[in-house]
Fold this sequence. Notes:
CATH class of the domain at 121-241: Mainly Beta
Oligomer: single chain
Structural class: mainly beta
Low-confidence stretches: 334-348
Number of strands: 19
Radius of gyration: 19 Å
Mean pLDDT: 89
Largest sheet: 4 strands, antiparallel
Amino acid sequence: MDTRAGFGKTGDFGPPRLGAGATCEVPIPQSTCDIPPAARAYSLNVTVLPPGPLGYLSVWPTGQTQPVVSTLNLFDAAVAANAAIVPGGTNGSINVFVSDASEVIIDINGYFAPPDSQAPAFYPAAPCRIVDTRLGSGKSGLFGPPAMGVGSTRNIPVPLSACVTPPWAYSLNMTVLPPGPLIYLTTWPADQPQPMVSTLNAFDGRVAANAAIVPAAADGSIAVFTSDASQLIIDINGFFGPPGHPGALYFYPATPCRVADTRVGFGKSGPFGPPGLGRNDWRDFPIPAGSCGLPPTAQAYSLNMVPPSALSYLTTWPTGQPQPVVSTLNSFRARWWPTPPSYPREPMAASL
């Protein structure tokens, strides 16, 4: 989907842009991306280009009540992207709501199929840093300096990194630290042509992060392209591969639901509510004990994290394991609303 005029999409997948308070239905199996009707959920990247502040965008399965969740937020009228795993609803469609007017772009990099289809299983991994191009990061060769240049492409042989990873498909977190505007970053299997999609954007030169599920090339490599100069960090938290190996997990779509909200007045309490986390603070969230009805047998979660105030970085990891040297999101310029407005305005979000 691309609602911008002149970008080749029409009908349900093209212009006009969405107006303030608008909801549109996107029949993904009817798009040109060859997604089968049997797909039960989609791995998407949602990008917004609003003419002004955008309080929030929500995505959910068509036919269900709009949930009180946000998929992404953008208060300063820049360009932002966020990954989202969204179950398909009626006829495989999804709904998109925007609180304020915005162009909307939706890219897809995979889908979840019924268990009997021999689709890849998910194998969680201890979060690990694959690439860090900053000087002094401890990385070298293809996994370290120098920074990415203007219009540059780098192939990353993921299985050769310090992170133990089979050459399958990777669940990654991509972070950029550009010295100036970065129009877009794209990542894809290194033995395929570069696709016409973006993985993340940082038009105003901010530090930005986004999740990405990226299939591996035959040798396990992925390619990364940056339109403008930028430092690059790549963390991995799992991979998708053939079912039947020890530790294999399977994806179960759930109705989007807010697990925790540390803001006062937003309805959460106990370990899922106030107070907010302090500087260099951490908290355990017993997710199965929350109000979202998730079973205690769940072993991994598809989450969207939203920082309620500016912070250098936020990290999430399995309780009981050492804190890893990775970041889940960065929000150097986030801001929050002290009282509940007519709809929940929040700073930029990142998926996990």
